[in-house]
Amino acid sequence: MQVPEKMHAMILDRPGRALEYREVPVAEPGPGQILVKVHACGVCRTDLHVVDGELPEPKLPIIPGHEIVGSVVRKGSRVESFRTGERIGVPWLGYTCGECRFCREGRENLCDRPLFTGYTIDGGYAEYTVADSRYCFPLPDRYSDTDAAPLLCAGLIGYRSYRMVDADASRIGIYGFGGAAHIVAQVAVYQGKKVFAFTRPGDLQAQRFARKLGAVWAGDSTDTPPEPLDASIIFAPVGSLVPAALRATVKGGIVVCGGIYMSDIPAFPYRILWEERRICSVANLERRDGEEFLALAPGIPVVTETEVFPLKDANEALSRLRDGKLQGAAVLAIE
């Protein structure tokens, strides 16, 4: 495939500003890296946190996007894992040092010197991107490019959050029914769990969507579920949902905070945490999360609900996500 010298990309120059559609040089892959022709890139809430300045110290200027589906068009030296033309996925975790305590202990998601796609490494809101081949995944043939894109963060981080829940938990609450939730709900239902979906107050469309995916109940985030929950997963970046979820969770249950950013958690009485209830956060992902989830998803099968936008309309997709006006996940289709 002939690779041009320049490409179009959506660029963030400063947080709080709209992305700009510009022509920039196509990067050359270095040792261990691959050049990827981007076919689709999901629009994730983490992208929104980067654009809105809620995550500190991004590389600037930066090309956002970390749910990347594309094909390998050029390889740097020492790349043996992929062949030219192969379709691959590029996720959020783009590099780990391999040397710090956490890497040595097999907890690369907590690496002291990580790099992240679309945050500290240029990402997939572009026609081409460069990625470390060690942190890319082959993708199941079952999924089209646009359908596969949300699996690479909404799916992977959602799956890691779901794995934090005790295996014998049978009643699971999901707060914030967007990209990650609509994927996790399908996994939970497939495994025989009862899913209770919590949405923005009055969002009847999202509640109908949740019931369509198998939720036994769907209501406002201010509602009390009809049954006590064994566990809750919070994807909405709203700190006040933590005490709400604790109140709905049984003794010994867990509340998992699945986002990279959340507004401050308000003070709450110790009695709603007592009786061995737990709160934990989820940080990034490990490559084995991706391997496990991408092997599991086609067999369920997980079906992604997507709304597709052209690359130039990335700001519109982010705005729709910010306002809670998407069902499922937004994806940029890149020609």
How would you characterize the overall build of this protein?
- This protein has 335 residues and is an alpha/beta fold.
- The chain folds into two domains: 6-152 and 305-333, Alpha-Beta Complex (Quinone Oxidoreductase, Chain A, domain 1); 156-281, 3-Layer(aba) Sandwich (Rossmann fold).
- The chain has helices at residues 45-51, 101-104, 145-148, 154-163, 179-190, 204-212, 241-248, 287-296, 314-322; strands spanning 6-11, 20-25, 33-43, 68-75, 87-90, 93-95, 115-116, 128-132, 137-138, 171-175, 194-199, 217-220, 229-234, 249-257, 278-281, 306-310, 329-333.
- The strands form four sheets. Strands 3, 4, 5, 8, 9, 16 and 17 form a seven-stranded mixed β-sheet that branches. It has a six-stranded parallel β-sheet with strand order 12-11-10-13-14-15, with helices on both faces. A two-stranded antiparallel ribbon has the order 1-2.
- Helix 4 packs across helix 8.
- The mean pLDDT is 95.
